[in-house]
Write a structure and sequence with these properties.
Elements: H1 21-30, H2 42-55, E1 60-64, H3 67-77, E2 83-88, H4 92-95, H5 100-105, E3 108-112, H6 121-124, E4 138-145, H7 156-168, E5 172-177, H8 180-187, E6 202-206, E7 216-220, H9 229-235, H10 244-255, H11 258-277, E8 284-285, E9 293-297, H12 303-309, E10 313-316, E11 321-325, H13 332-345
Parallel strand pairs: 2-3, 2-4, 4-5, 5-6
Antiparallel strand pairs: 1-7, 6-7, 8-9, 9-11, 10-11
Helix pairs in contact: 1-10, 2-10, 8-11, 11-13
């Protein structure tokens, strides 16, 4: 039997991974009988309680189909059209959501160039110069990704500093938590310690990148901010009729330690991969490996041959930087085979 040209697993994205077997079991368990649609079901009720056990009783949780929807609707709920959302230049809302945050919230994105994907007060305080001046857009939200699109992780101190700056200046603090589990594991922190305790107001909680089949959650840490969100979600076309299949997955993810096990594994695989690659000549890591992403420069002429066997994305063509992502199902064998291919190819 001829083996396919591409392997079963690659390093392109944790979105490319399959579904964790425990998620398949949760979906199967939710597939028995009929329940009321649109979230009025025991699976969703249980999942919401599970979120509240992690984040506190004043937490409001709304399940949606995907990450862009979670970001857009969460931001739409807490902004007015004359306000701006401050984010890193590399932020998913700025680069990979096809203008949806601006289209649906009506708010302008103010992006900031950063060396590592992380915002800092000194990089954003100049946006306050036009506050109160009707000719200028008014800053309304600071949005960060945790972990960032560069694989780096905000410390709790860094999050608290940004949140305090936002609140002092009448802004809210939003977190794109597509890889929030990886960040929590990296910091050895609970989910609450790095969100509620750091002053986060609203968050997108990622599931698909950590072993779920699909589904994300919009999480408000003050229920008052979610007063009208059920209408925003419906109007935004993200109210799943068979919500129980998202809810059951989140309950499975968070009711035990599955979220932590999966994120711990993918983070460990990324560090293992980085450790092997940095031993090789002609390769150079460009970012510290703090979650499940590895950013490394590879001479451009070798990239197509490597991509043919193990597909991955070129992140920055100017410096020939590529992104390699580990997933919950990445194995040490995957890494050994890829590193051996790099050794044979990059000479």
């Amino acid at each position: 039997m001829t083996k396919p040209d591409s392997p079963r697993r690659s390093f392109a994205s944790d979105n490319n991974a399959g579904v964790h077997p425990e998620m398949i079991d949760a979906i199967k368990a939710a597939n028995e009988g009929h329940v009321v649609a649109y979230g009025d079901d025991p699976f969703t009720e249980r999942a919401v309680r599970t979120f509240q056990k992690h984040f506190g009783r004043d937490t409001a949780v709304y399940f949606v189909f995907g990450g862009t929807g979670a970001n857009v609707l969460g931001l739409q709920a807490v902004t007015k059209s004359y306000q701006a959302i401050i984010c890193a230049e590399t932020a998913h809302i700025n680069v990979d959501e096809c203008g949806a945050p601006e289209k649906f919230s009506g708010s302008k994105l103010l992006s900031v160039k950063t060396p590592d994907g992380k915002l800092r007060v000194e990089l954003i305080e100049h946006f306050l110069h036009g506050v109160g001046f009707e000719h200028h857009v008014q800053p309304g939200v600071i949005s960060v990704s945790q972990a960032t699109e560069m694989g780096t992780v905000y410390s709790k101190s860094e999050l608290k500093t940004l949140a305090a700056f936002a609140h002092k200046n009448n802004m809210l603090f939003h977190v794109d938590g597509a890889r929030i589990a990886n960040a929590a594991v990296s910091l050895n922190a609970s989910l609450k310690e790095m969100t509620v305790d750091c002053g986060v107001d609203v968050m997108s909680f990622g599931g698909a990148k950590n072993g779920m089949m699909y589904g994300e959650a919009v999480v408000f840490f003050d229920k008052k901010r979610a007063a009208d969100f059920k209408y925003i979600r419906k109007q935004g076309m993200h109210l799943p009729s068979k919500m129980r299949f998202i809810s059951a997955q989140f309950d499975a993810l968070l009711s035990g330690d599955l979220w932590k096990r999966s994120a711990t594994h993918s983070n460990r695989m990324a560090k293992l991969l980085a450790g092997e690659l940095e031993k090789l000549p002609h390769l150079k890591l460009t970012q510290p490996v703090e979650s499940n992403g590895v950013f490394v420069t590879i001479p451009q002429k070798f990239i197509p041959a490597l991509q043919k066997k193990y597909f991955f994305y070129v992140w920055n063509e100017e410096i020939s930087e590529v992104r390699l992502m580990a997933s919950f199902d990445t194995t040490e064998e995957d890494i050994r085979e890829f590193v051996n291919l790099v050794k044979k190819t990059v000479k």
